[in-house]
Amino acid sequence: MLSMNITHAKIVTLPVSDQDRAKDFYVAALGFDVIVDRQMGPVRWLQVAPKGAQTGFTLATAEQGFTPGSATGIVLETSDLDADCAALLEAGAAVQGPTDLPWGRQATLTDPDGNSFVLSEPAPSGF
């Protein structure tokens, strides 16, 4: 068996059409921190992350080779799904759920570009 030294995912790219609008959404609605925001040659490197997270989200545009709204399957874990859904709805975010499932509770969040996330609160007993 191959032995690797990978410890975590570092960056997930979120394709967006407007970096400023996306930054405002992730900071204001989700409470993310801006990790990097600078010009790197002809492109702007803009990265946000949940407070204390090891994984950041790069907000990349079509000019950088990405199709806005094409990210799916990203799961964000929360300890209080109801409170987070209420806060997101108050901030004007598109949220569906929550729904009770055998492994916990989930809701779906869509950002202004159509990128979709699952907000997940694990069942107290685990899965």
Automatic annotation (TrEMBL):
Domain VOC: residue ranges: 8-122
PROSITE patterns found in the cross-reference section: VOC
Lineage: superkingdom: Bacteria
Official protein name in the record: Glyoxalase
Annotated organism of origin: Sinosporangium siamense
